[in-house]
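Batch job 17 of 40 flagged for manual review because the log was empty.
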Amino acid sequence: MIPAAGDGASAECAAAIYSAAMNGDRPMLLKRVTAVLHARQYVVFFAIALFALDVGVPLLSAWLYRGAAFAELLTNKWGPLADAVAARSAVIAGVFVVYLLLKTWLRAGYVRSLTGPFHLGPANRGQFARLLGLELILELIAAAAVGAGMLAGENVSVAGVMVIVLLALYLATIYADYIVILAGVGPIRAIVLSVRTVRVALLPSALILLTVTMVGDATSQLLSGSVTTSLGRAAPMLLVQCLVMGAVVFVADVVLIVLYLSALESGKLAPRTGRPSRSSRG
């Protein structure tokens, strides 16, 4: 079972995830994933909207910073935090703050919708604050990666090492936001539990991360290669990218949540107990 959380999120998730179809005879992972996808198929539109937000805001901040043509912005996006720091712009910083708050609110609702009835936002202020802390950490990592990339310049070796380090960080935190919502823990504890979950399910976790990354890169390159003019003409391809990547991310999220719950059921995420002290021995 999911460990008890103070906001009641765990009980809500347990009731939704462990349906009758999934409880019988401890079905295989594929059967559990299929059951959740069938039960939560409408949430794919939520995933598409979140991906559209993640695409649109970096484009907006890049335009505010550089004012370049749309085709150039597509290939030179840093993200709102990096843009705000580089431009020293209060306006872009404001865009980042609004984006972070909105993204956190919607992400909490999205994960809750994957594991229970539809929700637009978090269960309470505590859940929102915990997820906000995690999202801020992830944004800082992304901004630091941009800065490191600028320092590396055209050094291919350094750039390659940075890509590996960044993928390792993303892999280590791949379960963290689900754990914040499902287990009701803070961001640091969620990252620790995410690392433990990755150790339990290393191969599927790595394959999911690589698949999403490769599909994302492919759709981005397709979009960049076919867009040479205005946003209006690029809109159809942007829509296709959001639809494809939203669906891919939705499936990946479902698989990752099931992997986390399976690891939790197995008892492999339980805290390690040390040897009893002398005072506790009979």
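Reviewer: the log was empty due to a logging misconfiguration, but the result itself is present. The two ends are 31 Å apart (CA to CA). Unflagging and moving on to job 18.
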